[in-house]
Amino acid sequence: MKSKKLSRSGLLLAITIVLFLLMYVSGMLIFSDKGFAKPQMFLNLFISNAGLIVIGCGLTLVMITGGIDISVGSVTALICTVSAFMMENMGLSAVSALIASLFIGLLFGVVQGYLVSYLEIQPFIITLAGMFFARGMTAVVSTEMISIKNELFLKWAKTKIILPFGYTNKKGVYIEAYIYPTVVIALLTLVLIALMLKYTRFGRALYAIGGNAQSAVMMGLNVRRDKFKAYALDGFLTGLGGFLFCLNSCAGFVEQAKGLEMDAISAAVIGGTLLTGGVGGVVGTLFGVLIKGTIASLITTQGTLSSWWVRIALSALLCFFIVLQAVIGSVGSKKNRAKLV
Amino acid sequence: MKKKMISTILALSMVTAVLTGCSGSGSGTAATTAAKADTTTAAEAATTKADSADDSGKTLTIGFSQVGAESDWRTANTESMKSTFSAENGYNLIFDDAQQKQENQITAIRNFIQQEVDYIVLAPVTETGWDTVLQEAKDAGILVIIVDRMVNVSDDSLYTAWVGSDFELEGQKAAEWLNSFATAKGIDPKSLNIVDIQGTIGASAQIGRTKGLQDAVDKYGWNLLEATTGEFTQAKGQEVMESMLKSYDNINVVYCENDNEAFGAIDALEAAGKTVGSDIANGEVMVMSFDSTKASLTDVLSKKITLNTECNPLHGPRVEDIIKALEAGQTVDKKKYVDESIFAVDDTVKSVTVDGNSYDVTVVTQDVIDQRAY
């Protein structure tokens, strides 16, 4: 049972990766003279989406348990605005803003996790309330747009990590490829969560809970506690991801990160995480994020298409993956039945 | 075994899906390739005559990141850029609509940098948060021109120039017109009881337009009864007007800081049984507005709005002037204002003078409205 599920998720993951590679390579071929083949174009996918990768990791955890968290976008806006407010209006340091961000994220995770796991309320409703609450609180903190000018913060945001390769632009200047520290943090987080899911007892328990919560109880797992921990961790990762997002935008305002939760959910689904739980992983989510970034990049590079095509292409991909998951799922269950007979 | 087969089939079907997906956008791609071929030949031609100083044959690539398409003003702004930087005029415009999201604009600018565009034109969603990405553009040696809203960055050298409206001048023009109008009609300045429905507090349009009025109030001794924000919306404009009418019964001039507020104020005034118009002496309430959208000029034609000061969205030609100057190696002004008209209901005042410059007042006719782009 377990091994079959894993191979199913492995198949979905493989499809996502192949699709990403196909899209990227065709982009490189079609738009080779528009800079698409440059290494920096690829690195920009990570730079622009570092926050989303971390938030997507957290969301994947709760989706594996069969839950959902749609508050992440609003919480990100709250974190950015609180950070900006603390640094600019209260004169506090960037470190305290980081701590506050992590704390806010964790707080949302703990409260929502408690309500979902111990009071057994639908996660959609709870996190919907969280979404409204966070967006509302953002406006309470500040309705004005706050620009972050804190020196240490800007240093974190602007320090380039130069890579040992680059390109020569048309003016003949050699430009080194670079990433920002946010990318390193995002990828490190991703690796840690992936290892945790694969090798720790807690990680395996999440799959068991999402696969079938009742059997998980019978297996002797503390379902409520593990679910609670998943939401708490998701909240913490939203706090971290939100701060990374803030490092990219260097500003805080009410309308920030609107719809980010939907980007994160679609990335997880495209990455092979089932909304019904029990199947999925964060590596897939990473590729989901990269696919979304690549579509946006392709359409911007093309230059004449309306950028709303990003949404249309994403929706087509989502449908494709959901149908694919259903097909693979039904093939699996048919095989099960055949075995029983 | 069976599983393997299924996966192979799936993989195949997926590849087909991707391929059809590509061919779906094939026509667009083909067009781009064709355009690209042109560009390449032009570039080659430029290289061959690289030694000659004549660069006029060079195609300039402009990356334009626009806020979105939330209003008629914005659409007119986009159209102005598109028609100015068209292929016929020798430009290759890469246009990106950010759908009101700052993060989309940041991503688009990074993309422009990798495409090695010659200039980046940015109409920012927000005033803040541009330090990092504009630094990246600067590092790559690409000049950035800001249009419409200003950016708030720690280092001014991150952008080359800004093109937009002089909101304070708009306010001054409106106030000077009111002064000339009152003088021409023989109205005592002390009897002008003005209310100001302000824009969203802190927006540059609000700050400039409020200041223009405030300075004139101090200068000419008008009565400014109250200034409250209507947040640039029709609903809020109506609400504020209603509450002002309850507090004061002698209002004869309503100064609305955009058209939407004016629409709301007119509704509230008419609901309260007032007549809107320019004949203050006979109890009419004068409505003044800004932006000059088509809908509001129609209201000027029907004499509901007496004066409408334009906020010009046609930034394209101004940006082109800057780019041409930069290409010719000249220095450009850091700030460049667009020309803006004044639209009035009649020709009582033919022109207004602000800081020694004279600005003509246009009387609104159906022809004027028909010629407007937005």
Task: Compose a concise summary of this entry.
The complex is a heterodimer of chains A (341) and B (374). Chain A has 341 residues and is mainly alpha-helical.
Structure commentary:
The complex is a heterodimer of chains A (341) and B (374). Chain A is mostly helical and 341 residues long. Chain A has one domain (2-331): ABC transporter involved in vitamin B12 uptake, BtuC, CATH 1.10.3470. Helix content of chain A is 74%, strand content 5%. Chain A is built from 13 helices and four strands. Chain A has helices spanning 2-30, 39-64, 72-89, 94-117, 123-141, 151-158, 181-199, 201-211, 213-218, 223-249, 260-270, 282-302, 309-340; strands spanning 146-147, 161-168, 174-179, 251-252. A two-stranded antiparallel sheet of chain A has the order 1-4. In chain A, a hairpin with a 5-residue loop joins strand 2 and strand 3 (174-179). The mean pLDDT of chain A is 90. Chain B has two domains: 54-159, Response regulator (Rossmann fold, 3-Layer(aba) Sandwich); 167-312 and 339-371, Response regulator (Rossmann fold, 3-Layer(aba) Sandwich), CATH 3.40.50.2300. Chain B contains twelve helices and 14 strands. In chain B, strand 1, helix 3 (72-84) and strand 2 (91-97) form a beta-alpha-beta unit. In chain B, helix 3 runs parallel beside helix 11 (316-327) and helix 4 packs parallel to helix 5. The longest helix of chain B has 23 residues, at 2-24. The radius of gyration of chain B is 26 Å and the shape is elongated. Chains A and B meet through helix 1, helix 2, strand 1, helix 6 and helix 10 of A and helix 1, helix 2, strand 2, helix 4 and helix 5 of B.
